[in-house]
Each structure stands twice: as structure tokens, then as C-alpha cells.
Amino acid sequence: MSLATLLVLADGRLPAGGHAHSGGLEAQVSAGRVRDVDDVAGFLRGKLATSGLVAAAFAAAACDRPARSPDLDAGFDSRTPSPALRKASRAQGRALLRTARAMWSLPPVGREPHQPVALGVVASAAGLTPVEAAVAAAHGMVSGTASAAVRLLGLDPYAVHGLLARLAPECDRIAATVAARAGNPVDDLPAAGAPLLDIGAELHATWEVRLFAS
């Protein structure tokens, strides 16, 4: 285990484009479904149990066997029904690969893989394990959205980071669970969905004025 390398990959300051995305939160704030820290907590828990679980599973699988990243990319695409979310995921995957190439030697990867698949390939190149790749995916899924919540709602950043600390054990649990199945066939990986996020993403993509890309 390389904790320092994991910290580099999971660092929110990594110039991989994550700061430009709210993870679906902006649409839910606009709809009045998320208004305070408690609402953010519920949103993050739900996201971690659905899209976070899927992202962690695909990151772990891509780290376990980078050579099958094209099959994994197709599998993740089939689990992302929203065209807007597909576009956002591929944009973040492209940005992550561009950043990672400045740090590690990467194997051949598709031109625009989904972000979790790119994350797994990068983690493998950095010498990390599937469980570490899954931790980075799960943590990134909630930390980026939490940061967006501070900006969108003007929340106390101390309270929001307290929430992230309380979610950390759940990130670890999910990472351990999916890493144990990293070698499974693509069709057997998690496929949990969040229809409200898909609908919100499509509506958000039509806005002329917005703070975040997704």
C-alpha cells in the first residue's frame, strides 16, 4: 500500500476537472430538494450507495486488469442512461488521463474512457491496489459534491467536512466490498441506478446559466 500515492490521486486539488462538476447537486438544489447540511448528508449517502458503488466497482476492476478497460468502459456506459452524465464522465476521464500522464507511465487507453475506468487504469499505473482505487473513487464521488454544496448553499465548510469524516467508514466498506469482486465479469459488477440524478442531469444540461458543468 502506498498511502502517499493514494493521497496524490485522491487530492481534490488534482487538476483533473472535478471542481467543475457538482455531481448532480446543482439540479437538486435548484429543485428545492437539498437546502441544508442534513439534506446534503442524505444526498451524499444516497449517491454513495448507487453511483458511488458503481464507480468504485469499475475503478477497482480497471485497476485489477487494465487491459480489459474497453470492456469495462462499455459496461459503465450501459449503466449510465443519461447522455449528459455520460458526457460529464468522459470529460473527467479525459482530464484525469491528461493529468496522470504527467506523473506516471500509462498503458494504452481509449481516447475518452469514463472517469471511473480511467481512475482504475491510472491507479494501477501508480502501483495502487484495486481496493485503493475503489477508495479513491468512492471518496471522490462524495468529496467533490460536498465541495459544490459549500459553494451552492453557502454552508459552513467545517460542518460539511465533518459530514465527509462520518462518511469515510462507508467509503471504506464499499471499497472493500467491490474490490473483492474486481475480477468478476463486467456483467456481474454492480449496476445500482439513481433515476432522479439522471433526470436532473438532463434538465441541468438545458440551462443557459449554471455554476457547474454537471
Automatic annotation (TrEMBL):
The keyword Cytoplasm applies. Pfam families: UreF (PF01730). Gene3D superfamilies: Urease accessory protein UreF. InterPro entries: UreF (IPR002639), UreF_sf (IPR038277). It is found in: Cytoplasm. It comes from the Bacteria. The keyword Cytoplasm applies. Residues 70-90 are annotated as: Disordered. Keywords: Chaperone, Cytoplasm, Nickel insertion. Transmembrane segments: none annotated. UreD, UreF and UreG form a complex that acts as a GTP-hydrolysis-dependent molecular chaperone, activating the urease apoprotein by helping to assemble the nickel containing metallocenter of UreC. The UreE protein probably delivers the nickel. HAMAP family: UreF (MF_01385). Required for maturation of urease via the functional incorporation of the urease nickel metallocenter. This is Urease accessory protein UreF. It comes from Paractinoplanes hotanensis.
